[in-house]
Amino acid sequence: MDCGSGNSRRYINVTNIVNVLEERQPGLSRALLGYHAFTGCDFTSSFYRKGKLNPLEIVEKDAAGRYLHLFTCMGEVDGDVNIEVASEFVCKMYSQPKVRSVDEARYNKLMQMTGKIDQDKPLTNIKRIDCALLPPSHRALDKKLQRAQYVSILWNHANFACPDQGLSPTDYGWSANGNLLQPVWFDEPSLPDALFTDRDNNKDDSNDTCSDSDETTIVKSTDVDSDADDHIYHEPSDDEAWSEDSDTDSQDVD
């Protein structure tokens, strides 16, 4: 490989690099394309603060060779890209070796960062953490795998006239916006609709329910002596002019 220019020009023996990688672990050189695309490159996002070296050690320590097979298959059009194996690999990246589900690993990391949950205010500590430190959810990982596979196919067929092999990026985790491609992070809403449906139903039920005692209270409140109005605070309307006698200590004046 010829690289550089002028006095910095040099030749790199790629064959020697491949031989060294194969000595470390057979099949590692072929898996590097998928590994690089999955862990982050110019076309795919990376795992926040995870880098390249530590995940590579996980690949090399896998005696069964499942991770090598995963990344090697990413460069093939009909490759067997197993999301369950990828999920287990990501769990190990986030120091969750006993967990195989990224959703479970995501929950465990969240509990580690937030500590004990206050049942009265469960979101208090959550606001103080950086959610970028959490592993991706299963839905986000699925889309990331699709994008990594598409990029790996391009690289693996770079010596062909059509490296994309007739594939469309919109079928591999991207959406088209004019001449631009935008990543689709996950399908379906980020929160279940049932959360909002139950709240709206409860609100409707509370508004529709009006007992006889409530109606009696409303009627009686209209019969109160008019002198009692002197003791009731009425918030001034927007049309009323401000005066020094107005209660404005708690209001901001522009």
UniProtKB/TrEMBL annotation:
Residues 196-254 are annotated as: Disordered. It comes from the Eukaryota. Residues 237-254 have a biased composition (Acidic residues). Residues 196-206 have a biased composition (Basic and acidic residues). This is Uncharacterized protein. The lineage of its organism: Eukaryota, Metazoa, Ecdysozoa, Arthropoda, Crustacea.
